[in-house]
Amino acid sequence: MKVKIIGGQGGVTPTTKATSYLIDGVLLIDAGSVASGISIEKQTAIDNILISHSHLDHISDLAFLADNCFGLKDRPFEVYCNEKIRENIMTHLLNDAIWPDFTKLPNPQNPTLRFHSVVPEQVFDLGPYRVRSVPVNHQAGAQGFIVEKEGKSLVFTQDTGPTSRIWELAHKCDQVVGIFTEVSFPNHMEQVAIDSQHHTPATMKKEIQKMPQGVPIHLGHLKPSFQQQLVNEVNALGCPDLIVMSEDDTTFEF
To answer: In terms of Cα–Cα distance, which of 132, 138, 227 is closest to 172?
Structure first.
């Protein structure tokens, strides 16, 4: 599996993009920067989209993706999320007031976006991928994903504070080859991180003990205002498995 980090930051600036991870060019996890981060040709090649939660930095480009690719695909983007996330997106984004309802355009029988509800921890197949959604410790219906292909599994928590269940399930996977999680705030802002259900380097140090060992841990969602401080504090942990994703438009192969 190739994971392209279109955007992996915890904020938007001229040099940082919001969360969008693209697996093998066809499976998208979150839509924070997919429309602004890759060409329209590559956008139309996406088949399935997993949405971790309905915060704006994870869904904003769903609107522009639909607009860019309207009329260019012979089938919908298939969007998978839980019912809370779908409800938030339809109520607050694709509501014909903020943005057109692309679940009905060009027509309800063949829309640009088609939503599917997922059941927590229930495995579903998307072509060669087996996917399991797992609730995590964050707002807006937050869920992480375990994605398996050809016996190898990747774990994506997306936004979360300290959590447990996704790590319990990860330990049951045959071969976890990569973990993608987050560290948003520096250590001196731990109370802010707790209140907003995010991680600091210090809380991540404790979280690592729950994870499968000896697996590369990719840390994203760094707040741009504190990026260099976060890099320094993560490096100070001295954990060789940690990889800080401080740059976008990078690819990891597993």
So the answer is: 132
Backbone phi and psi for residue 239, each to the nearest 5 degrees, phi listed first: -95, 115
Cis peptide before 106 (omega within 30 of 0): yes
β-strands 176-182, 152-156: how paired? Answer: parallel
Sequence-distant (6+) residues with CB within 8 A of 122 are 132, 133
Task: For strands 48-50 and 77-81, give the pairing.
Answer: parallel
Distances (CA, A) of 13 to 7, 18, 39, 222: 11, 9, 20, 12
Contact (CB, 8 A) for 184 and 10:
yes
**pLDDT, position 205:** 97
Q: What is the pLDDT of residues 115-173, one digit of tens each?
A: 999 999 999 999 999 999 999 999 999 999 999 999 999 999 999 999 999 999 999 99
Q: Which domains does the chain have, with CATH numbers?
A: 2-253 (3.60.15.10)
pTM: 0.97
Q: List the alpha helices (DSSP H) in 10-50.
A: 34-37, 40-44
Ranges of residues in the chain whose predicted pLDDT is under 70: none
- Report the distance separating Cα 49 and Cα 27, nearest Å: 6
Q: Locate all alpha helices (DSSP H) within the chain, ordered by sequence.
A: 34-37, 40-44, 56-69, 83-92, 165-170, 190-196, 201-207, 227-236
Q: Give burial (CB, 10 Å; 0-12/13-18/19+) of 191.
A: exposed
Quote the pLDDT of residue 113. Answer: 98
